[in-house]
């Protein structure tokens, strides 16, 4: 889905390095069962709880990013990612968890599993110590990997119906086209980075992809 983006000087290289990690995400048992519709409801529920905790902390990053922003375009960029994460994703999780009487308070009280906590710590480190370029590298693997993964499983003939509504959030809400806008913006933001900084940024992005892989591998 990122054919054009793969041609970009900086983000093209970053994507090429990370697509194999996202393909590995697709191979995980959890994602395969989600695709086929055979994933146990209890596991999906536990994922939704962990992911709600994750998304709350993800949203906190944007406080820093918008504060740091130098341009209105930057603010719009961060706001559009936050809008999807908070208003679409978090809302979908809270709506789903209602049937188990799990509300916001229960989410606040939930303990993140180790891989979730590690991902949160990695994001917070970038928010606290990094520039907006660093923050972009920490927020993008999340959105871009989901756009890529869900586009692929949605087209798989082995797909079942059980979790289609969940898959649709990543396919129908045009996350794919938003993802391309976010990539183009990031390319511009990083265009005048030195080679050393580009390497550092690419490393942060890759760490994020490995956090994504570990998130799919958690024992729900
Ligand atoms: C862990 C994780 N990564 C990415 C996304 C997509 O926003 C999500 N909801 N959760």
Automatic annotation (TrEMBL):
Domain of life the protein comes from: Bacteria
UniProt-listed Enzyme Commission number(s): 3.5.99.2
Molecular function in Gene Ontology: thiaminase activity
Pfam families found in the cross-reference section: TENA_THI-4
Reactions catalysed: 4-amino-5-aminomethyl-2-methylpyrimidine + H2O = 4-amino-5-hydroxymethyl-2-methylpyrimidine + NH4(+); thiamine + H2O = 5-(2-hydroxyethyl)-4-methylthiazole + 4-amino-5-hydroxymethyl-2-methylpyrimidine + H(+)
UniProt KW keywords: Thiamine biosynthesis
GO CC term (a single one): cytosol
Residue stretches making up the Thiaminase-2/PQQC domain: 19-219
Metabolic or biological pathway, per its Swiss-Prot or TrEMBL entry: Cofactor biosynthesis; thiamine diphosphate biosynthesis
Protein family (similarity comment): Belongs to the TenA family.
Quaternary assembly: Homotetramer.
Full protein name: Aminopyrimidine aminohydrolase
């Amino acid at each position: 889905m990122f054919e054009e983006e793969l041609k970009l000087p900086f983000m093209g290289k970053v994507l090429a390095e990370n697509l194999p990690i996202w393909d590995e995400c697709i191979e995980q048992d959890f994602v395969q069962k989600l695709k086929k519709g055979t994933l146990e409801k209890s596991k999906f529920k536990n994922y939704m709880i962990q992911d709600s905790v994750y998304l709350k902390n993800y949203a906190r990053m944007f406080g820093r990013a918008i504060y740091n922003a130098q341009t209105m375009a930057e603010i719009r960029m961060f706001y559009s990612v936050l809008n999807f994460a908070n208003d679409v994703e978090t809302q979908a999780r809270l709506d789903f968890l209602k049937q188990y009487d799990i509300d916001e308070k229960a989410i606040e009280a939930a303990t993140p599993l180790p891989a979730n906590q590690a991902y949160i710590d990695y994001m917070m480190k970038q928010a606290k110590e990094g520039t907006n370029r660093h923050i972009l590298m920490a927020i993008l693997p999340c959105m871009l990997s989901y756009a890529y993964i869900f586009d692929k499983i949605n087209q798989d003939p082995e797909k079942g119906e059980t979790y289609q509504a969940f898959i649709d959030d990543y396919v129908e809400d045009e996350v794919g086209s938003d993802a391309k806008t976010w990539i183009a913006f990031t390319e511009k933001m990083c265009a005048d980075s030195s080679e050393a900084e580009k390497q550092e940024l690419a490393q942060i992005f890759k760490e994020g992809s490995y956090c994504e892989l570990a998130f799919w591998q958690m024992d729900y």
